[in-house]
Fold:
Amino acid sequence: MAHLFISYSRNDRPVIEKLSAVLEEAGHSVWWDRHIRGGAAFAKDIEAQLHKADAIIVAWSSDANESDWVKDEAVFARDKGKLIPICLTDCEAPMGFRQYQTIDFQNWKGDPAAPATHSLLSAIAEISGGEALVPPTPAKKTWVQKIMTETPYRLSAGAAALALVGLIVLFFMGGGLGPNDGPASGALPGPSEVSIAVLPFADMSPEGNQDFFARGLSEELLNLLVGVEGLGVASRTSSFTYTESKIEELNIDIEDIAGRLKVNHILEGSVRKMGDEVRITAQLINARDNKHLWSDTFDRQSTDIFRIQDEIATAVVVQLRKEFGIETAGAPIVKKRDTENISAYEMYLEARELYLGRSAGRATLERSMHLFERVVEMDPGFARGWEGLAAVYGVATSYGISDRDYSALALVTNKKALEIDPDLSMPYAVIGLTYRTHYPTPWAESFDNLNKALERDSKNVSAWQWIGMNYMAVGAHDNAVNAFTKCLELDETRKQCRRYRSASNFVLGDMDAAMADANVNAEANYFRGFDVYIPALLMRDERMMAYAASRMENWQVGFPHYELISALEDPDDQRPGRLQTFLNWGDKKRVDVSDNTNLMLALRAYDDINVNTFDNDYVYLWLPQFSHYRKTPQFKQLTEDLGLVAYWREAGFPPQCHVLSETDFECD
Structure:
């Protein structure tokens, strides 16, 4: 998520209101002068927001071109390298800014799927170092419609017409991916079920700068309640969607939120922090009748923050016990104190929130890393500080951060965390994950650490996802499905678990289950891994859908979709020059196509698949369409180099592989 500043002329306010709404729907935070607080110094507030912004959008128009305010803000943006110019009514910018490419919004009507919107989101991603996020569209759309608008490049009119034909074919033939109602508000859980969602506490501080602290406190309370036996707690990903502004925007009430989150109680509150003084209010609500079961206000020093958390969590559980007629008092909830340095703890909360919001891009993760490094400097005995730092190190390379050996750093920092507190779960999970980046992978050690993580916290969603990925890698797809199912029981919004469960069911031949999960992800605008289904779509003569699935995964301009589809349609007919077509495209786009394992398998370029080019996405090794590869010497060599054969000889071969001798095997 980027923090954006919009500079514009007053007369263009109606368009800016629409643009701000679209950018916020895409996940960005947006500031424009409607946010100036009453009584705030106008120029001072604007200057502070300009410095804070990751990117500055300057909206040129005939009025804006004459505005000294807009031109001053544009100069600042240009000098800081944050300028993104768009034009509303006049695409000739003032002198000094005409050398910058301007995004044309002259005919924009507020459509989040318009080319101009996608161009703007891509520009924001480039400047802020994030990903080109896409706003949800207002109306519910079919899978085909979403495919046509999800990526930065739109289909041609002819392709759109074909998409409509394909949708009609799917509708009448059945078995396709049809629309559903999305993350809907269902009936509240039954009266006998005890369940709760913790909404992100609102920041009521005078400066409005304690959002990280407020959200961090909410997360701490959620984690305390997760540990209460018999209490169902909505996942953080789900419940933290419902910020105060989001609730106002959707115009929904507590019962609506509870229905969407499938709980019957809501805990909400606010934080007001000034210096070392903090006021925290919290209230527990029965969503069935909107009855307030308990509320309290805590005026304390920041040093009492741990005790406040314990008191709130204990009070919530006591009230729930009373409501459900549970007479046993139960022991008060006491959070383990792992630091006495409140400054380090508050910084830890901010660092953790940034890590959890890392989908905003590289800059967010780098900021999180910097803060975690400061946390452990401030308190070297803070185990969770080391745990958080290790988690950041563990994912750094996947965000393009490669200035250090982060795999080695992750192992070192995890071990440091466990030396201080061997009861932590996440360090074991991250160690298990990190081992996957080493070839040959020590699979037994990876499984062992992930199991230790789950022994310490059976609700560790990441550990369930990663152990499921391990099972998928070694070919144990039944176990993988079970692990991903557990992951989704704990957090039904975890799209990667749904993606991989779908792929494992596809390998197992359960197409109904595979398609059901794919449909849910499509409704959530998540299309990663849809290229898995291309051969199945082709077998059902659904070529348009096959092209759409290819485009979702390989969205770069000019990608040779026809050549890929042709290669998958007739895998035995790999005409000369087809591989060179992709190599030429890769050279032009500065993309190394040899590290796209799925592509190399489709082209039967088996000699180009090795531990140096393997993309670590093991699902492709087991897909039905690539059974030919599993019978080749290259497959045996790759599995040997990846450590799979050594693991199989120790733990047993997967169902699709058979031992031929002490030194040989074959796979279906």
The CA atoms of residues 61 and 202 lie 37 Å apart. The first helix runs from residue 13 to 25. The two ends are 44 Å apart (CA to CA).
